[in-house]
Amino acid sequence: MTLPRATILGLGAYAPPQVLTNEDLARMVDTSDEWITKRTGIKRRHIAGPDQTTSDLALIAAQQALEAARVRAQDLDLVVVGTATPDMFFPATACLIQDRLGASRAGAFDLLAACSSFVYALICTSQLIAAGAIRTALVVGAETLSRLIDWDDRRTCVLIGDGAGAAVLGPSTGAFGMYGGLVGADGSAGDVLKVPAGGSRMPITVDAIERKLHRAYMDGQAVFKLAVRTIPGLIHKTVAQAGWTMDQVNLIVPHQANLRIIEALASQLDVPLERFVVNIQEYGNTSAASIPLALYEAVQSGRVHEGDRIVLAAFGGGFTYAACAWVWGS
Ligand code: UT7
Questions:
Q1: Residues 43, 163: one domain?
Q2: Which structural domain, as residue segments, surrounds residue 42?
């Protein structure tokens, strides 16, 4: 029996309508449009409304992806949501959308690898399809980081945005699909990006809240250095695993954390910046949603053609990282 190769059958994405500009932030904390633009490339970000949860964003992206893939929710075997900001600890956000979609045959679970969650989930799910364990799956990256951030901390609040992106995966009928996928982690660097309180180590108490330990903490420079040190090698390995050379890659979709990180990757890989998808100016860092949002926009704008070789590369809290290589088409 020949085992299938998993491919992306359809994509969806959603960003909430409420926009927060750099000028808006300059009225909230001691910052400026000039500082944020120069240091990060971000101009605007979308923020979930008070009644919108991660599963609400995920559901809209998922419905779009199913429609684009012409797959019925009842035909899904698996729903995976990559998120660090689930609606609740449990039930999993994947279970919430499994119910709302009517994906009654599907198993459902969340996967947490911070900003790398979507790419981790895509790789794991594709391998389940390639192994013949499942046939059709929905993978979502969705976040409402605005709920975790300290809006008085100018070092982090200017960076983040909310959003969701989704992909429906199934067996490829041709030579399309995933050719390489690598995941990695360096747990010893876990302290550079974390939410200290709220788990079993430090349950939420009045003291923890007063010390803002239930909010996201980040050592920005440390994360910056880890990303620039790790991701070029990861991309090289993934491209080699696919059996390609770097100059055969048509498009790289990197995690949208900082334009300067993307520029550093381009320079280290010796790949022109034009071959990278960049939409950070509009959304900021949407964590697990950033890569599916960027890929969706690249496809919608006609930048991706059948047969193109595409690499997705993510990094984030953990420290985690993951990359995968695709021949575009179904
Ligand atoms: O999804 C993955 C997770 N996150 C990341 O990948 C983030 C990676 N790191 C970064 O993107 C950058 O390190 C930041 C954007 C977070 C910071 O940029 P930086 O160039 O590393 O700035 P810095 O932390 O070295 O700070 C430079 C100065 C400091 O002032 P002093 O000490 O030089 O007087 C900061 O206090 O900029 C100050 N600063 C700000 N000023 C205006 C920090 N944040 C702001 C701000 N507005 N929002």
A1: yes
A2: 6-173
